[in-house]
Design goal:
The structure holds 2 protein chains of 2 kinds. Chain A is an all-alpha fold. Chain A has a single domain (7-120), classed as 3 helical TM bundles of succinate and fumarate reductases (Up-down Bundle). Chain A contains 5 helices and no strands. Chain A has helices spanning 12-39, 45-53, 55-83, 86-89, 93-120. The radius of gyration of chain A is 18 Å and the shape is elongated. Chain B is mostly helical. Chain B has a single domain (35-143), classed as Fumarate reductase/succinate dehydrogenase, transmembrane subunit (3 helical TM bundles of succinate and fumarate reductases). The longest helix of chain B is centred in the middle third of the chain and has 32 residues, at 37-68. The N and C termini of chain B lie far apart (47 Å). Classes of the chains: A mainly alpha, B mainly alpha. The interface between A and B is medium-sized, with 24 and 27 residues. Bound molecules: protoporphyrin IX containing FE. Protoporphyrin IX containing FE (HEM) sits between chains A (19, 23, 26-27, 30, 68, 71-72, 75-76, 78-79) and B (45-46, 49-50, 52-53, 100-101, 104-105, 107-108).
Protein backbone atom coordinates (compact mmCIF):
# COMPACT_ATOMS: atom_id res chain seq x y z
CA UNK A 1 0.00 0.00 0.00
CA UNK A 2 1.31 3.39 -0.98
CA UNK A 3 0.17 6.45 0.92
CA UNK A 4 -1.34 9.49 -0.75
CA UNK A 5 1.07 12.26 0.29
CA UNK A 6 2.70 12.76 -3.11
CA UNK A 7 -0.51 12.94 -5.14
CA UNK A 8 -1.26 16.22 -6.89
CA UNK A 9 -4.33 17.46 -5.06
CA UNK A 10 -3.99 15.43 -1.86
CA UNK A 11 -7.15 13.50 -2.62
CA UNK A 12 -7.91 10.79 -5.15
CA UNK A 13 -11.23 12.36 -6.11
CA UNK A 14 -9.79 15.80 -6.78
CA UNK A 15 -6.95 14.22 -8.79
CA UNK A 16 -9.44 12.21 -10.78
CA UNK A 17 -11.53 15.29 -11.59
CA UNK A 18 -8.51 17.44 -12.34
CA UNK A 19 -7.18 14.84 -14.74
CA UNK A 20 -10.50 15.00 -16.64
CA UNK A 21 -10.64 18.81 -16.70
CA UNK A 22 -7.07 19.08 -17.90
CA UNK A 23 -7.69 16.38 -20.53
CA UNK A 24 -10.44 18.53 -22.04
CA UNK A 25 -8.17 21.61 -22.08
CA UNK A 26 -5.36 19.61 -23.73
CA UNK A 27 -7.78 18.19 -26.27
CA UNK A 28 -9.09 21.67 -27.15
CA UNK A 29 -5.57 23.03 -27.58
CA UNK A 30 -4.42 20.07 -29.66
CA UNK A 31 -7.43 20.33 -32.00
CA UNK A 32 -7.00 24.10 -32.28
CA UNK A 33 -3.29 24.00 -33.16
CA UNK A 34 -3.70 21.22 -35.71
CA UNK A 35 -6.70 23.03 -37.18
CA UNK A 36 -4.74 26.27 -37.42
CA UNK A 37 -1.86 24.52 -39.19
CA UNK A 38 -4.19 22.79 -41.63
CA UNK A 39 -5.94 26.11 -42.40
CA UNK A 40 -2.55 27.76 -43.03
CA UNK A 41 -0.60 25.22 -45.11
CA UNK A 42 2.10 27.64 -46.25
CA UNK A 43 2.57 29.15 -42.81
CA UNK A 44 4.70 32.28 -42.64
CA UNK A 45 6.62 33.49 -39.63
CA UNK A 46 4.33 36.52 -39.39
CA UNK A 47 1.15 34.43 -39.24
CA UNK A 48 2.64 32.06 -36.66
CA UNK A 49 4.24 34.73 -34.52
CA UNK A 50 1.12 36.90 -34.89
CA UNK A 51 -0.98 34.10 -33.43
CA UNK A 52 1.24 33.69 -30.37
CA UNK A 53 1.52 37.44 -29.89
CA UNK A 54 -2.18 37.79 -29.22
CA UNK A 55 -3.00 37.90 -25.52
CA UNK A 56 -5.67 35.23 -25.77
CA UNK A 57 -3.32 32.76 -27.46
CA UNK A 58 -0.56 33.39 -24.93
CA UNK A 59 -3.16 32.88 -22.19
CA UNK A 60 -4.57 29.74 -23.83
CA UNK A 61 -1.05 28.32 -24.20
CA UNK A 62 -0.20 29.17 -20.59
CA UNK A 63 -3.38 27.49 -19.40
CA UNK A 64 -2.44 24.44 -21.46
CA UNK A 65 1.02 24.37 -19.89
CA UNK A 66 -0.51 24.36 -16.42
CA UNK A 67 -2.87 21.63 -17.60
CA UNK A 68 0.03 19.50 -18.85
CA UNK A 69 1.80 19.83 -15.52
CA UNK A 70 -1.25 18.76 -13.50
CA UNK A 71 -2.30 16.06 -15.97
CA UNK A 72 1.12 14.49 -16.34
CA UNK A 73 1.82 14.76 -12.60
CA UNK A 74 -1.37 12.85 -11.78
CA UNK A 75 -0.75 10.40 -14.62
CA UNK A 76 2.85 9.64 -13.75
CA UNK A 77 1.94 9.45 -10.08
CA UNK A 78 -0.55 6.71 -10.91
CA UNK A 79 2.08 4.89 -12.92
CA UNK A 80 4.72 5.15 -10.17
CA UNK A 81 2.39 4.02 -7.38
CA UNK A 82 1.23 1.09 -9.51
CA UNK A 83 4.64 -0.33 -10.36
CA UNK A 84 7.14 1.00 -7.82
CA UNK A 85 5.81 -0.83 -4.80
CA UNK A 86 7.28 -2.96 -2.08
CA UNK A 87 5.72 -5.98 -3.74
CA UNK A 88 7.50 -5.41 -7.04
CA UNK A 89 10.75 -3.87 -5.81
CA UNK A 90 11.17 -4.77 -2.18
CA UNK A 91 12.48 -2.42 0.48
CA UNK A 92 14.01 0.04 -1.94
CA UNK A 93 10.63 0.77 -3.54
CA UNK A 94 9.93 3.93 -1.56
CA UNK A 95 13.30 5.48 -2.36
CA UNK A 96 12.99 4.58 -6.04
CA UNK A 97 9.45 5.93 -6.24
CA UNK A 98 10.33 9.19 -4.48
CA UNK A 99 13.30 9.69 -6.78
CA UNK A 100 11.13 9.06 -9.82
CA UNK A 101 8.47 11.46 -8.56
CA UNK A 102 10.99 14.16 -7.76
CA UNK A 103 12.47 13.75 -11.25
CA UNK A 104 9.22 14.12 -13.18
CA UNK A 105 8.16 17.03 -10.96
CA UNK A 106 11.38 18.84 -11.78
CA UNK A 107 11.03 18.11 -15.49
CA UNK A 108 7.43 19.37 -15.48
CA UNK A 109 8.49 22.49 -13.62
CA UNK A 110 11.21 22.99 -16.22
CA UNK A 111 8.65 22.63 -19.04
CA UNK A 112 6.47 25.23 -17.35
CA UNK A 113 9.27 27.78 -16.95
CA UNK A 114 10.55 27.10 -20.47
CA UNK A 115 7.06 27.50 -21.95
CA UNK A 116 6.49 30.74 -20.07
CA UNK A 117 9.81 32.07 -21.23
CA UNK A 118 8.93 31.31 -24.85
CA UNK A 119 5.56 32.98 -24.50
CA UNK A 120 6.14 36.03 -22.37
CA UNK A 121 9.65 37.20 -23.10
CA UNK B 1 -8.86 -11.03 -7.88
CA UNK B 2 -8.99 -14.77 -7.81
CA UNK B 3 -5.32 -15.33 -7.08
CA UNK B 4 -3.28 -14.36 -4.11
CA UNK B 5 -0.29 -12.06 -4.42
CA UNK B 6 3.05 -13.57 -3.50
CA UNK B 7 6.56 -12.28 -3.72
CA UNK B 8 9.46 -14.21 -5.24
CA UNK B 9 10.38 -15.94 -2.01
CA UNK B 10 6.96 -17.52 -2.09
CA UNK B 11 5.81 -15.76 1.03
CA UNK B 12 2.22 -14.61 1.05
CA UNK B 13 1.81 -10.91 0.29
CA UNK B 14 -0.16 -10.46 3.45
CA UNK B 15 1.78 -11.90 6.35
CA UNK B 16 -1.41 -12.74 8.20
CA UNK B 17 -2.27 -15.09 5.40
CA UNK B 18 0.50 -17.41 6.56
CA UNK B 19 -1.94 -18.86 9.01
CA UNK B 20 -4.11 -19.87 6.10
CA UNK B 21 -3.15 -23.00 4.17
CA UNK B 22 -1.09 -21.50 1.43
CA UNK B 23 -0.52 -23.96 -1.35
CA UNK B 24 -2.81 -22.71 -4.04
CA UNK B 25 -1.12 -22.10 -7.40
CA UNK B 26 -0.26 -18.52 -8.20
CA UNK B 27 -0.03 -17.08 -11.66
CA UNK B 28 1.12 -13.51 -11.89
CA UNK B 29 3.16 -13.98 -15.04
CA UNK B 30 1.18 -11.67 -17.24
CA UNK B 31 2.98 -12.92 -20.36
CA UNK B 32 1.22 -16.25 -20.03
CA UNK B 33 -2.26 -14.80 -19.69
CA UNK B 34 -4.33 -14.04 -22.76
CA UNK B 35 -5.45 -10.46 -22.29
CA UNK B 36 -8.71 -8.94 -23.53
CA UNK B 37 -8.63 -6.10 -26.07
CA UNK B 38 -9.49 -3.60 -23.33
CA UNK B 39 -6.25 -4.46 -21.52
CA UNK B 40 -4.19 -3.62 -24.61
CA UNK B 41 -6.13 -0.37 -25.05
CA UNK B 42 -5.39 0.51 -21.43
CA UNK B 43 -1.67 -0.27 -21.34
CA UNK B 44 -1.14 1.56 -24.64
CA UNK B 45 -2.89 4.60 -23.16
CA UNK B 46 -0.37 4.48 -20.34
CA UNK B 47 2.64 4.01 -22.61
CA UNK B 48 1.50 6.78 -24.95
CA UNK B 49 0.98 9.11 -21.97
CA UNK B 50 4.58 8.56 -20.88
CA UNK B 51 5.75 8.97 -24.48
CA UNK B 52 4.15 12.40 -24.84
CA UNK B 53 5.60 13.48 -21.53
CA UNK B 54 9.03 12.82 -23.09
CA UNK B 55 7.96 14.16 -26.49
CA UNK B 56 6.97 17.47 -24.90
CA UNK B 57 10.64 18.38 -24.82
CA UNK B 58 10.83 18.08 -28.63
CA UNK B 59 7.63 20.06 -29.12
CA UNK B 60 8.78 22.84 -26.80
CA UNK B 61 12.11 22.96 -28.61
CA UNK B 62 10.32 23.38 -31.94
CA UNK B 63 7.98 26.02 -30.51
CA UNK B 64 10.93 27.88 -29.06
CA UNK B 65 12.86 28.09 -32.33
CA UNK B 66 9.76 28.74 -34.42
CA UNK B 67 8.91 31.85 -32.40
CA UNK B 68 12.40 33.19 -31.83
CA UNK B 69 13.02 34.91 -35.15
CA UNK B 70 12.08 34.71 -38.81
CA UNK B 71 15.37 32.94 -39.59
CA UNK B 72 14.98 30.29 -36.94
CA UNK B 73 11.35 29.83 -38.02
CA UNK B 74 12.54 29.12 -41.54
CA UNK B 75 15.21 26.76 -40.26
CA UNK B 76 12.54 24.80 -38.42
CA UNK B 77 10.37 24.82 -41.50
CA UNK B 78 13.04 23.60 -43.90
CA UNK B 79 14.40 21.03 -41.43
CA UNK B 80 10.87 19.69 -40.97
CA UNK B 81 10.58 19.50 -44.75
CA UNK B 82 13.94 17.80 -45.41
CA UNK B 83 15.20 15.95 -42.38
CA UNK B 84 13.94 12.38 -42.19
CA UNK B 85 14.93 11.88 -38.57
CA UNK B 86 13.09 14.96 -37.33
CA UNK B 87 10.03 14.00 -39.37
CA UNK B 88 10.11 10.56 -37.83
CA UNK B 89 10.43 11.92 -34.30
CA UNK B 90 7.62 14.42 -34.78
CA UNK B 91 5.45 11.72 -36.35
CA UNK B 92 6.09 9.34 -33.45
CA UNK B 93 5.18 12.02 -30.92
CA UNK B 94 2.03 12.78 -32.94
CA UNK B 95 1.16 9.07 -33.02
CA UNK B 96 1.46 8.96 -29.24
CA UNK B 97 -0.75 12.02 -29.03
CA UNK B 98 -3.32 10.59 -31.43
CA UNK B 99 -3.61 7.28 -29.62
CA UNK B 100 -3.63 8.86 -26.16
CA UNK B 101 -6.27 11.36 -27.25
CA UNK B 102 -8.55 8.75 -28.85
CA UNK B 103 -8.30 6.48 -25.83
CA UNK B 104 -8.62 9.51 -23.56
CA UNK B 105 -11.81 10.66 -25.25
CA UNK B 106 -13.17 7.11 -24.94
CA UNK B 107 -12.28 7.29 -21.24
CA UNK B 108 -14.14 10.58 -20.82
CA UNK B 109 -17.20 9.25 -22.64
CA UNK B 110 -17.23 6.22 -20.35
CA UNK B 111 -16.81 8.50 -17.34
CA UNK B 112 -20.03 10.19 -18.45
CA UNK B 113 -21.66 6.82 -18.00
CA UNK B 114 -21.87 5.86 -21.66
CA UNK B 115 -20.84 2.35 -22.63
CA UNK B 116 -19.79 1.37 -19.13
CA UNK B 117 -20.40 -2.31 -19.69
CA UNK B 118 -18.12 -5.16 -20.71
CA UNK B 119 -19.61 -5.07 -24.21
CA UNK B 120 -19.37 -1.27 -24.35
CA UNK B 121 -15.75 -1.37 -23.19
CA UNK B 122 -14.82 -3.87 -25.90
CA UNK B 123 -16.65 -1.86 -28.54
CA UNK B 124 -14.95 1.36 -27.39
CA UNK B 125 -11.52 -0.26 -27.51
CA UNK B 126 -12.26 -1.63 -31.00
CA UNK B 127 -13.30 1.82 -32.20
CA UNK B 128 -10.11 3.34 -30.74
CA UNK B 129 -8.02 0.68 -32.49
CA UNK B 130 -9.83 1.38 -35.75
CA UNK B 131 -9.76 5.19 -35.66
CA UNK B 132 -6.25 5.88 -34.37
CA UNK B 133 -4.30 4.08 -37.17
CA UNK B 134 -6.28 6.07 -39.73
CA UNK B 135 -5.40 9.33 -37.97
CA UNK B 136 -1.76 8.23 -37.63
CA UNK B 137 -1.66 7.51 -41.36
CA UNK B 138 -3.15 10.93 -42.11
CA UNK B 139 -0.57 12.54 -39.80
CA UNK B 140 2.16 10.65 -41.68
CA UNK B 141 0.86 11.87 -45.04
CA UNK B 142 0.69 15.40 -43.66
CA UNK B 143 4.32 15.30 -42.48
CA UNK B 144 5.77 13.62 -45.59
C1 LIG C 1 0.42 16.82 -23.10
C2 LIG C 1 -0.24 15.89 -23.21
C3 LIG C 1 -0.53 14.69 -22.33
C4 LIG C 1 0.29 13.99 -21.47
C5 LIG C 1 1.80 14.24 -21.19
C6 LIG C 1 -0.51 12.95 -20.88
C7 LIG C 1 -0.06 12.01 -19.98
C8 LIG C 1 -0.84 11.10 -19.32
C9 LIG C 1 -0.38 10.08 -18.43
C10 LIG C 1 1.09 9.78 -18.08
C11 LIG C 1 -1.46 9.40 -17.96
C12 LIG C 1 -1.47 8.24 -16.99
C13 LIG C 1 -1.80 6.96 -17.63
C14 LIG C 1 -2.32 5.95 -16.70
O1 LIG C 1 -2.55 6.22 -15.51
O2 LIG C 1 -2.50 4.81 -17.14
C15 LIG C 1 -2.63 10.02 -18.54
C16 LIG C 1 -3.96 9.64 -18.27
C17 LIG C 1 -5.07 10.16 -18.92
N1 LIG C 1 -5.05 10.99 -20.03
FE1 LIG C 1 -3.44 12.01 -20.68
N2 LIG C 1 -1.80 13.03 -21.36
C18 LIG C 1 -1.85 14.08 -22.26
C19 LIG C 1 -2.93 14.49 -23.02
C20 LIG C 1 -4.21 13.97 -22.92
C21 LIG C 1 -5.31 14.33 -23.79
C22 LIG C 1 -5.26 15.31 -24.97
C23 LIG C 1 -6.38 13.63 -23.37
C24 LIG C 1 -7.74 13.71 -24.03
C25 LIG C 1 -8.79 13.54 -24.03
C26 LIG C 1 -5.98 12.82 -22.21
C27 LIG C 1 -6.79 11.99 -21.46
C28 LIG C 1 -6.39 11.24 -20.40
C29 LIG C 1 -7.27 10.55 -19.46
C30 LIG C 1 -8.80 10.53 -19.51
C31 LIG C 1 -6.44 9.88 -18.54
C32 LIG C 1 -6.89 9.07 -17.32
C33 LIG C 1 -6.74 7.63 -17.53
C34 LIG C 1 -7.08 6.85 -16.28
O3 LIG C 1 -7.65 7.37 -15.30
O4 LIG C 1 -6.76 5.65 -16.29
N3 LIG C 1 -4.64 13.05 -21.99
N4 LIG C 1 -2.24 11.03 -19.38
Amino acid sequence: MVTQVTSFGRSGLSDWLLQRFTAVILLAYFVFIVGFMICNPAMSFDTWKGLFDTTWMAAFTSLTLFAVVAHAWIGLWSVSTDYMTTRTMGDKATVIRMTFQATYSLILFYYLVWGFKILWS
Amino acid sequence: MAYRLRDKSGRGHNEKSKAVKDNRPVNLDIGTIKLPITAYASILHRISGIAIFVGMAVLLCLLDSSLESAESFNTVKTTLADNFLLKLIVWLVLCGFIYHTCAGVKHLIMDLGIGETLEGGKKGATIVFAVSPVLMLLAGIWIW
